[in-house]
Design the sequence.
């Protein structure tokens, strides 16, 4: 994409920063954020945006709930990407659960409301959702045609997030939901894995049989471009590589490409205890996420990184060795 105006709500996080790098050099970007003083990055684990990446990027304040001056930015924009969501990497206490849900639903509704106020609304609105909407699948892969969604907390969040998006009436704006699989890049979820490797703990987690659906962040950006170019695409798409792997394979490949010869496994009881200690949920590592990007493949999209080993190899070129080795 070139010379387009792209709005990214929640664009200061892991994916947003990668999207700034990918789209920022040749397009005008507006990042909607709650914290203007964090204009470069709000993450201390990831800080690699260059002046060139940010040359055509502006940060505009909003609260993710109410209309305000920011609404004007949507006027005449080409593409709106919504990445807002309070992190799910926490204990699922009633307070955290409420924030996880409200942040997603409120921001989606606020953006829908803003679009309805535009004389020239964005042509395309892509809203994030999560591939965790599908059930714990150990028997067969799930795709956009699967109907047996369960009703646990994560699924309910995704359903309400998507329902809010679907309910927004935007006659002049094409809408796409991207159900994101675990997204790999320099930062994000790989940081805790690198820490495990460093301390010899890079073995399988639990039984290691749970499936791991993933995508390289560059493919996520290319998928967005692909959807922009293919005006017939709308509705729900899984954003995941066509080759998910079991957790033990994921860890084995990660050890291989990082040159970590061994990694102790983490048994389920250890994970439960560890998750309790660090204030997160064991579901994040033990759920079997077995998802395929059927509709993307039907659309003709070709992945740059269909295979995990190539994805890891490409990412590691950007990561200093000290991040995944003690010495
Ligand atoms: N990364 C993955 O592997 C993955 C997988 C599946 C789905 N997803 C979904 O994809 C989206 C982007 O993921 P990410 O990894 O880039 O997330 P992230 O790093 O946590 O960034 C999310 C952004 O949302 C904004 N935000 C957080 N809480 C908010 C609130 N209460 N109100 C308004 N804004 C809030 C923050 O921006 P400010 O602080 O600047 O306002 C933050 O930078 C999220 O919705 C996530 O659930 C991610």
Sequence:
């Amino acid at each position: 994409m070139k010379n387009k105006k792209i709005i990214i709500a929640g664009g200061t996080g892991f994916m947003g920063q990668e999207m700034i790098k990918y789209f920022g050099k040749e397009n005008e970007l507006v990042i909607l954020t709650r914290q203007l003083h964090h204009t470069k990055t709000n993450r201390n684990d990831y800080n690699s945006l260059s002046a060139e990446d940010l040359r055509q990027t502006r940060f505009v304040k909003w609260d993710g709930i109410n209309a305000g001056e920011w609404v004007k930015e949507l006027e005449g924009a080409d593409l709106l990407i919504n990445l807002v969501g309070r992190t799910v990497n926490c204990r699922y206490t009633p307070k955290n659960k409420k924030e996880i849900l409200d942040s997603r639903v409120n921001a989606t509704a606020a953006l829908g409301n803003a679009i309805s106020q535009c004389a020239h609304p964005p042509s395309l609105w892509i809203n994030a959702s999560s591939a965790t909407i599908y059930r714990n699948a150990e028997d067969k892969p799930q795709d956009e045609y699967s109907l047996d969604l369960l009703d646990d907390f994560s699924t309910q969040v995704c359903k309400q997030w998507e329902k809010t998006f679907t309910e927004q009436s935007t006659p002049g704006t094409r809408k796409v939901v991207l159900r994101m699989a675990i997204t790999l890049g320099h930062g994000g979820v790989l940081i805790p894995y690198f820490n495990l490797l460093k301390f010899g703990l890079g073995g399988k987690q639990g039984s290691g049989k749970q499936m791991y659906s993933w995508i390289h962040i560059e493919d996520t950006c290319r998928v967005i471009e692909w959807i922009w170019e293919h005006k017939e695409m709308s509705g729900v798409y899984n954003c995941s590589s066509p080759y998910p792997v079991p957790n033990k394979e994921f860890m084995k490949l990660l050890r291989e490409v990082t040159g970590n010869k061994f990694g102790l496994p983490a048994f389920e009881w250890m994970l439960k205890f560890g998750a309790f200690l660090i204030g997160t949920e064991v579901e994040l590592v033990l759920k079997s996420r077995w998802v395929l990007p059927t509709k993307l493949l039907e659309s003709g999209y070709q992945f740059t990184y269909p295979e995990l080993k190539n994805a890891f190899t490409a990412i590691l070129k950007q990561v200093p060795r000290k991040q995944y080795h003690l010495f």
